Amino acid sequence: MRDNKFYTCAYCFKEFEPKRRRVQRYCSNTCRSKAYHARKTESQVLTTPSSEVTTPTPHNENMSLAGVGNAAAGVLAANAIKSLLTKESNKPATKGDLTQLLEKLNSRYHFIKNMQPNEFGQYPYFDMVEGVVVYMRNN
User: Fold this and answer.
1) What is the reported pTM?
2) Per-residue pLDDT tens for 35-83?
3) How far apart, in whole angstroms, are the C-alpha atoms of residue 92 and residue 23?
4) Per DSSP, what are the bridge partners of residue 8?
5) Is 27 exposed, middle or buried (CB count within 10 Å of its CB: 0-12, 13-18, 19+)?
6) Counting Cβ atoms within 10 Å, is residue 25 exposed (0-12), middle (13-18) or buried (19+)?
7) Mind listing the pLDDT tens digit for each residue in 15-24?
8) In degrees, to the nearest 5, what angle opens at C-alpha 56 toward C-alphas 55 and 57?
């Protein structure tokens, strides 16, 4: 035979019917866990002397000439290694490369083969100087 009396939770103060034979202090595992953490943090605050609690002092970093030199040398070394290990075909194009391409093609406009003519029968060309697609009549 079971007692049907209600207990009050020691954490949230709600009334609950105990699920075990022994006296329960908390209505759920959540309240039990929260009460434990509350007791632990409270005891740590009370037992820590005020002399041990220190505020962190801001660290003032100064730039030195040696540090700047080391950083510059590191950047130069990394760029040199990257330049040596990158294939020529994978390097980015420069303005000089584009100028050479224009001279090699002997034309400002380059025919685009994989695009259809527009409704006026004009064919697409890529303008190498402006970097846009233009439509013109084929000669």
Assistant:
1) 0.31
2) 999 988 877 766 656 555 566 667 677 778 888 999 999 999 999 999 8
3) 77
4) 15
5) buried
6) middle
7) 988 887 777 8
8) 115
